[in-house]
Amino acid sequence: MTRRTRIAAVAAGIALMLLGDLPTNETGYFISEAQARVGRPLTPVSYAGVARRTTRRTVAAGAAVGATVYAPGCVQAVDAYGRIYYRCP
Questions:
Q1: Which residue, 49, 29, 30, is CA-closest to 39?
Q2: What is the pTM of this model?
Q3: How many distinct structural domains can be found in the chain?
Q4: How many whole angstroms separate alpha carbon 37 and alpha carbon 43?
Q5: What is the pLDDT of residue 15?
Q6: Torsion angle of C-alpha atoms 36, 39, 44, 49, degrees rounded to 10
Q7: By CB atoms within 10 Å of each CB, which of 15, 36, 48, 78 scores lowest?
């Protein structure tokens, strides 16, 4: 390692140590401010998004098919994802 390389390495190390102590609590310095958005989630695997899309598809499919006749003892139920199904004895 040459003398010039050592001096550059030491200078870079000192610069990194000095930069490591910068205050990072200012908004927008390194990371922008996180904001929560209420409403329609954009992530495809979030529970709210899955329930919303499934309910929309179920309503659309039910409207397209029309009224289906079930046995008198059947009970309509909704699962955790918003899907409507019939439970028959």
A1: 49
A2: 0.25
A3: 1
A4: 12
A5: 83
A6: 130
A7: 36
Residue 82 lies in a domain: yes
Q: What is the DSSP letter of 39?
A: S
For residue 29, pLDDT over 60 is answered with no
How far apart are alpha carbons 35 and 47 in whole angstroms? Answer: 19
Give me the phi and psi of 61, to 5 degrees please: -70, -40
**8: phi then psi, degrees, rounded to nearest 5:** -65, -40
Residue in the block written with tokens 């709210």: 48
Please report whether residue 79 resides in a domain.
yes
Confirm if 30 and 22 have CB atoms less than 8 A apart.
no
DSSP H helical segments within the chain, as ranges?
Answer: 3-19, 47-65
Question: Does residue 14 sit within a domain?
Answer: no
Largest CA distance in the chain: 92
Distance CA 37, CA 34 (A): 10
65 or 47, greater pLDDT: 47
More confident residue, 16 or 83: 83
